[in-house]
Amino acid sequence: MKAMRTFRLAFLFLLLGGLAACTHAWRQDTAVWQPPPAPYIPATTPTATIFATPPHKPGTPYPTPTPDAPHPLPTLRAQQTDYIVAEGDTLALLARRFNVSVQAIIAANHLQNPNILTVGSTLVIPAPRPAAQAPAFKIIPDAELVASPTSATFDLAAFVARQGGLLAAYTEEVDGQTFTGAQLVARVARDYSVNPRLLLALLEYRGGWLSHRQVGEQALRFPMGWRDPRRAGLWRQLHWAANELNRGYYLWRVDGLAAFVLADGQIVRPNPTANAGTAAVQHFFALLDGLADWQRDVGPEGFVQTYRRLFGYPFDYALEPLLPPDLRQPPMQLPFEPGVTWYFTGGPHSAWGDGAAWGALDFAPGDVPPQHRCAVSHKWVTAVADGLVVRSEHGVVMLDLDGDGYEQTGWDVLYLHIAAEGRVAAGTRLHAGERIGHPSCEGGLANATHVHIARKYNGEWIPADRDLPWVLDGWVSQGTGRAYDGYLRRGNEVREACQCREAKNALSR
Known about the structure:
By secondary structure, the protein is of the alpha+beta class. The chain has 2 domains: 10-70 and 134-317, no CATH class; 342-507, Glucose Permease (Domain IIA) (Distorted Sandwich). It has 13 helices and 24 strands. The chain has helices spanning 10-16, 48-51, 91-98, 102-109, 156-163, 166-169, 181-192, 196-207, 217-221, 234-253, 276-286, 291-297, 303-311; strands spanning 4-6, 81-84, 116-118, 122-125, 130-133, 171-174, 177-180, 260-261, 267-269, 342-349, 360-365, 381-382, 387-393, 396-400, 411-416, 429-430, 435-437, 451-457, 460-461, 471-472, 475-479, 486-490, 493-496, 506-507. Strand 20 (471-472) and strand 21 form a beta hairpin. 46% of the residues are buried.
């Protein structure tokens, strides 16, 4: 008898039930209102030309953003296909992989209990049937999706306080520590490298959290509109939103966004003239809306109106191109000391969460025995290049290679799972090879002691498996198309990523 796997898909019932009927903005169901705030004007600084362009002149019409050059779209399957269920599969994952709805898979296979899949059984996956194409309207520039140079001087705490809404008074406990609403938004924006203005505008549009001191029960539990009980509360909703915004953005960047599967099961093809930031916002609303609501939310009278009310014309914050066409990685070395053997344990995978670019690589020391999987190593993680430590907390060290003190500008390198004891302090200037801290499991999810490193430029995560591979002491990263699989190559030498300690993944400097 084939093994049985039971998957509790709490969000599946949301997709099948009332999620498609979610309102696109807050409801007028409470009594206390605040007047609409004036548009935010970026602060002028000695480096204003780096951080923002002049704001739109009040009283003049907003110009229509120029469509991008047509973007290649993946081809959709024209015929149904068969799929053999593997360990770990869920209907939601299969629906995303094959660009169809969960409902369509259930119907095609006459599934009586969609919570149970049999490993080794065959599922019929129907062909996607697009109902529409996304509008050509551009919502935001790419620089307003990622935490780019145009957000570097944005005073989030002051802006939230001026609005006087629920977010300004809100607190929530995370890991035994109490944070304000503004601190939660800032931390999620920073960790995922998603623009804080975008997160604030979505909070206002979906839940009225900036202008409204009191909100309804659903807006309080699910301020971003994703009604999964496991994602209740501002902290978890922000994580979900930032992760999905990244997913849409980076899928578009790698020509991997073939269709939007809406909450009501309908399929929409992207518009090839969109930009990555617009595609990301369209993906976000696709998870929440049926077709009519989605067309409104991503159109000129939808979400962008809230954004304009809060911050002005979004394309005043454009920085194009965000990644220069001649971008080159500066010289970098392996992140550990000479004469010590480490192991290449993770090829290209998501830089943060599971929706970002596959910009991360993992390395593990050899001094933590298997039975002590998450013990703090005595070995040292080191700086891959000269830089300024701009952040050191919660298992994270961020190394700013241009040394201007902003992780939204130029080249930056993330180190994750750095133990608190011995971790370098923020504000420290390091030379390549100097000590960062000890690898551990601190910060994020980890099943064994290692260090996770990732690059970003101007706030955008840089893939390690595409046109700008990561080069460390001459070792060049390569991917296989599967997360965590990959190779490092240097001349005729090859190291293969493996959750093992063997010659094939051993490295030393």
